[in-house]
Amino acid sequence: MSEKIKFAVVGCGHIGKRHAEMISRNPECELVALIDVKDRLLLGIETYDVPFFTSLDAFLNSGIEADIINIASPNGFHFEQAHQVVAAGKHVVVEKPMTLNKQDAEQLIFQALHKHKQVFAVMQNRYSPPSAWIKEIVESGKLGKIFMVQLNCYWNRDDRYYKPESWHGKKDLDGGTLFTQFSHFIDIMYWLFGDITNIQGKFADFNHNDLTDFEDSGFISFDFVNGGMGSLNYSTSVWNQNLESSMTIIAENGSVKIGGQYMDKVEVCNVKDYEMPELAPTNPGNDYGAYKGSAANHHYIIENVVDVLKGRNTITTNALEGLKVVDIIERIYANK
User: Fold this and answer.
1) What's this model's pTM, rounded to 2 decimal places?
2) Tens-place pLDDT, residues 57-94
3) Across the beta sheet with 5-10, what order do the strands follow?
4) Which domains are delineated in the chain?
5) Cα separation values, 131 from 138, 205, 237, 273, 276, Å
6) What is the pLDDT of residues 244-256, one digit of tens each?
C-alpha cells in the first residue's frame, strides 16, 4: 500500500486534537474529517482544513472515504462509537478505556473479528523508554521470580479539572478514577506481569464529594496469577500538583523502581550481574491546561496503526489487552 492511510477523529478535546496533530504530521497519513458535538469555532481546530461533522452518523453518511476512525470522545461513548465504526466496515483506534465494562469489550472484539477489522487500544505509556526497558528486563528473566510489585499513583485532580460542564467526574461518562486517570499504569502492570486474582480493596472519597460521582482514593491488594503478590495505591486528592506514578518491583535477583510523576524515570536498578544502560529521555506528560497527564507518545500509536495496516508490523496494544485492563478495573471496583 503506497497510498496514505485516511483517518477521521471523533472528539476534538485535548486528546482528540493530539490525535489530529500526530496524524497530520505523519507523511503516510491523511486527516479527512473531524467530528464533535460542539461548535467548530469553540474547539480551537481552525488549523485543520478538513470537513467537520457534528455527529459520527453524519460523517459515515457523507461518502468521505476513511480507513480508520479514532475515538477520543468521553469514555462512556467509546463502546457505542467504536461499535458503529466497525459496523461501517472501518478499523478503529479507541482511547483508553476501550469500554467501561468487560461485556461491551467482548462484544466489540467479537464484531471486529466478524468484520475482519482491527481495534487498536491506546496505551501510549508502553512506548516510554523506562517501560520498554523494564519489559525487556522482566521478559529476559534477569529478575528471576517476581516476589512483590507495588504500584503507586498519586495525582492532583481538583476543581480545575472536575468542572461542572465537563464529562469528567460523571459516572456514566467517566467510569471512575481508575478508568480515567490510572488505567495506563494498570495496563503497564498487566503487560509486565499478567492477570491478577484474590483482589481486596479499600476505597475512600476524601475531598471529591462535590466534584465526582465516585471515589478519589483506594488501597488494593492482590496476587498475580503467574506468581507473586502486588498492591495498587492511588489517589487524586494530592494537593495542588501531581506527586508520583511509580512501580517498585522486588524480585529474586534484584529490585527496580520506576518513578517520577508519570513513571518516566528509573530511580532504582539493583539487579544481580546487570548494568543499567542509558535510556533515551521520556517525552513530557500531555498538557491538559492546568494538568499534566500520561506521556505524550501518541505519535507512536499512529505510526503503529500505519505499520499494521500496511503489513509491516504487529499491533502494539490489541483489543484483548484493552479488554483485560477494563476487566481488571471492573473486578477491582467489585470490591467496593
Assistant:
1) 0.95
2) 999 999 999 999 999 999 999 999 999 999 999 999 99
3) 52-53, 29-35, 5-10, 68-71, 91-94, 119-121
4) 5-121 (3.40.50.720), 127-294 (3.30.360.10)
5) 11, 30, 26, 21, 14
6) 999 999 999 999 9
C-alpha 5/C-alpha 148 separation (Å) is: 43
CA-CA-CA-CA dihedral for 157, 160, 165, 169, to nearest 10: 10
- Give the integer Cα–Cα distance in Å for 153 and 184: 11
Q: What angle do CA 237, 323, 6 make, to 5 degrees?
A: 100
Residues 64/18, Cβ–Cβ less than 8 Å: no
Side-chain half-sphere CA neighbours of 129 within 13 A: 12
Alpha carbon distance 146, 228 (integer Å): 6
Task: Scan for cell 467510569, then name that residue.
Answer: 175
Beta bridge mates, 41: none
Separation CA 217–CA 213 (nearest Å): 13
- Are 243 and 154 in contact by the 8 Å Cβ rule? The answer is yes
The grid coordinates listed for 146 are 517476581
Q: Provide, for the chain, the percentages of residues in helix, strand and coil under a 3-state DSSP scheme, each rounded to the nearest 5.
A: 35, 25, 40
User: Does residue 286 sit in helix, strand or coil?
Assistant: strand
Dist. CA 150–CA 228, nearest whole Å: 11
Paired residues of 8 in beta bridges: 33, 69
